[in-house]
From TrEMBL:
CDD domains: ABC_Carb_Solutes_like. Keywords: ATP-binding, Cell membrane, Ion transport, Iron, Iron transport, Membrane, Nucleotide-binding, Transport. It comes from Microbacterium gallinarum. Gene3D superfamilies: P-loop containing nucleotide triphosphate hydrolases (3.40.50.300). Pfam families: ABC_tran, TOBE_2. This is ABC transporter ATP-binding protein.
C-alpha cells in the first residue's frame, strides 16, 4: 500500500497560449493535511480540478495508489474516491441537514452514518434544519460531514473558509481540521491565506504562475525559503541585498548577519523577518526612524526606515511613536535566497 493518498506528477493545463498549470508535482501523504498555497490566479484551483477529474490536462494522477489519470486512462470524478468541499457549501436546498449528509450513502446504516458524522462535526442538533436556516459556518460543517460520510481516500478543499468572517473562520477551521484528524482523512487544502496554511497544514506547497516553488513543513517554508518569491510571499518581512563574505557571515545594510555555515559566497538576498530585528541601545546598531506602528495584542509591529531608505519591520513589546529615532540590529541566523 502506498504512503501517498495523492501522487500527481507533471500536471499541465493549457488554455490556448496560457499555461495555467506548468509541470506541477503534488503529493499528499496518507493521513496528512497539505495546503496548496499561492496568490489568486496561480493555478491552485485548476490543479484541484485536474485531481478531482473535473478538468483534463497532461500528467499522471494516482489516488490511494491507483492511477486515475494519465495517458489514455481517465477515471470519472465519481469513481476517484475523492470528496470535494468548495467555498460555497452546495447543500441541496430542499433537503434537511441530515438528508444532505446521508445523500449518496447506501445500506441500512446510512442514517446512523449520517448522525455519526453530524456528531463528529458538532452539528447533530441541526439535523432537522434546512440549509437556509443555518449559518454559513454550519453549512460548511454539514458539507464536510457529507463528504466524510462516504469515506473518501482524499478530500479536496477549495478555499472553504473564504466567505466566513475572521472569528468564525478560525473556529470552523479548527473544528473541520479536528474532524479530518479524528477520521485520519487525507486532505489537500487550496488557499491564498498564508496564515491559514501555516496554522493548520502538516505540509505546505507554494505555487505561483502555475509552477511549484517549494514544498515542506510550515516551518521550513517560512524559515528556509528556497527562492525570493517564497521569501516575500510567506509571512511578513523584507528581502534585502546581501553578500556572503565568509563562512556563515553575510554583509547587509544592517551590518554583518549570521547565515547558514554552508551558504556559498557571493551576491544574494537576506530574508529579515520581524522577529529577526531587535531594537537596541542608541549607537549599538543601525540608526532608523519609526514610520508606522501596529498593535497586535501580544506585541507591536514597527516599520522602520533606515538612513538609506530601506524599510524593515521589527516586533517589540513597547510603544514607539511614528518619527521616533531608534537603533536596530539583526539577531540570530537569517535565511538567504538568490
Amino acid at each position: 500500500m502506498t504512503d501517498l493518498a495523492l501522487d500527481a506528477r507533471g500536471l499541465v493545463r493549457r488554455y490556448g497560449s496560457v499555461v495555467a498549470v506548468d509541470h506541477a508535482d503534488l503529493a499528499v501523504p496518507r493521513g496528512e493535511v497539505v495546503a496548496l498555497l499561492g496568490p489568486s490566479g496561480c493555478g491552485k484551483t485548476t490543479s484541484l480540478r485536474l485531481i478531482a477529474g473535473l478538468d483534463r490536462g497532461e500528467g499522471t494522477i494516482s489516488i490511494d495508489g491507483v492511477v486515475v489519470s494519465g495517458g489514455a486512462k481517465e477515471v470519472p470524478p465519481e469513481k476517484r474516491g475523492v470528496g470535494l468541499v468548495f467555498q460555497d457549501s452546495v447543500l441541496f436546498p430542499h433537503l434537511d441537514v441530515a438528508a444532505n449528509v446521508s445523500y449518496g450513502l447506501r445500506g441500512d446504516d446510512r442514517d446512523a452514518t449520517a448522525q455519526r458524522m453530524l456528531a463528529l462535526l458538532g452539528i447533530r442538533d441541526l439535523a432537522a434544519r434546512m440549509p437556509h436556516e443555518i449559518s454559513g459556518g454550519e453549512q460548511q460543517r454539514a458539507a464536510l460531514a457529507r463528504t466524510l460520510a462516504t469515506e473518501p481516500a482524499l478530500v479536496l478543499l477549495d478555499e472553504p473558509f473564504a466567505h466566513l468572517d475572521a472569528s468564525l473562520r478560525e473556529r470552523v477551521r479548527e473544528e473541520m481540521l479536528g474532524a479530518l484528524r479524528r477520521t485520519g482523512t487525507s486532505a489537500l487544502l487550496v488557499t491564498h491565506d498564508q496564515s491559514e496554511a501555516l496554522a493548520i497544514a502538516d505540509r505546505v506547497i507554494v505555487m505561483n504562475a502555475g509552477r511549484i516553488h517549494q514544498h515542506g513543513t510550515p516551518e521550513e517554508v517560512y524559515r528556509r525559503p528556497v527562492d525570493r518569491f517564497t521569501a516575500e510571499f510567506i509571512g511578513r518581512g523584507v528581502v534585502v541585498p546581501a553578500r556572503v563574505t565568509g563562512a556563515g557571515v553575510a554583509s547587509t545594510v544592517l551590518g554583518e548577519v549570521a547565515v547558514g555555515a554552508g551558504t556559498p559566497a557571493g551576491e544574494c538576498f537576506a530574508v529579515l523577518r520581524p522577529e529577526s530585528i531587535e531594537l537596541v541601545a542608541p549607537g549599538a546598531g543601525i540608526a532608523g526612524r519609526v514610520v508606522r506602528s501596529w498593535f497586535r495584542g501580544g506585541d507591536r509591529l514597527l516599520r522602520i526606515e533606515l538612513a538609506d531608505g530601506t524599510l524593515v519591520e521589527a516586533s517589540d513589546s513597547a510603544w514607539h511613536a511614528a518619527g521616533e529615532r531608534v537603533s536596530v540590529a539583526v539577531r540570530g541566523e537569517v535565511a538567504v535566497v538568490r
